[in-house]
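User: Quick sanity check before I run a bigger batch. Here is a single chain. Can you write out its predicted 3D structure?
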Amino acid sequence: MHQYVGELVDLTDPALNHLDDLSVEEARTRILDGTPESVRAIGGSFAIVARAGETVRIARSLDRPVRYFLAKKVAGPALVVADRIDTIRDWLKAHGLDDQFHPNYTRMVPAHYITTIRIVGCPDPSPSYQRFVVPHPGQLPNDVDAIGRAYIGALSNEVSTWLQRLPASAPIGVTFSGGIDSGSVFLVAAHAMRTLGLNLGRLKAFTLDAGDGPDLAQARAFLDTLDMGLFLEPIEADLSTVDASEVIRITEDYKSLDVECATMGLALMRGIRARYPDWRFLMDGDGGDENMKDYPIEENPELTIRSVVNNPLLYQEGWGVETMKHSLTYSGGLSRSYVRTCAPARHLDFESFSPYTRPALVELAGSLPWDELTGYDTDRLYALKGEIVAAGVRQITGAEMPVFAKRRFQHGALEADAMRRAMPWSEAEYRRRFLALYT
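Assistant: Done. Predicted structure follows.
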């Protein structure tokens, strides 16, 4: 009988791993061990591949999408793991295996799970999953002040840890709309910098102004209310000639809302890069909406208030692995759509940090008594995020944070009709353009 020899090709970029208190090799050892509790204790941002014999284990944080592809070779299968689809395609092409490639044959590793794959011959193996981020619904009390203190306290811990590993003089930008998420990140960052004795002159709030959008006025009102207007720096951008195909190429995705969001992110970051060629570190509030279930349920016919309340990580992970609705090509929720943030940042050589994506924040949000807090009432659900975050910011920083109505990034930087004129295409058209990249 033929003895297959499996090959692992790890093309992930080790420079993208930013661990709090472990080396990459120590983290790899924990992942290879496969104990969820040990992997959960890995702090920071990571996508790490580990192998022992024919067993490969991959684990990633929510902010580090990573993919794999199983190629067939005469000697045996080759498991190719990379941060991007085009990196996998280029490796296959360089090794004469590109006739096997299709973007839909790549697989996205789901965040918060240890993915185990055996590199064996026919038949192809199926991955198995072990969860290492575990919410405990109902663990927190039905008390907005107590929840806010725990939630923003955890946010402050993550921000402080991140700040302390940066170069002492590095400038720090917050992509800022004056909304609940970016507002809380900015205020907590300013508070942490004061507490740590860091120079607040390093901090800026960058707001995209793409033409008559409401975000700039909101951002100014937010900061002026707190006598912090000097931190605001508007970044003007012209979106009259949006190149959607470029955005799709950079993000390697085609979901309409995420393409629109990434378009705005690219415009903002390009403006920052043009003004500050050496700027590197950016913070944002991505993940805050997902944690607090702050999306209009009525816009998605698949959802009900009960499905949202009773699924603790719906917006972070989608319907979950090993379910009927789990895509093999993409993971779900923010686990998939975080490319809208990380891909533009990486493309323009920024290091982005979203503290709301850290496991401590995700688990806390998933541990709220959502049923008791909401009574399965949508209006109550929509009001909760502002109440919880404002209460937490007040207790942790002493600031009375203004709370404005939710608005998506792309709907705040540009007036709505202008947005539709700039990006009039359907998701089917975006998907056609995505597939055209590989034909």
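The longest strand covers residues 203-209.

User: Great, the batch can go ahead then.
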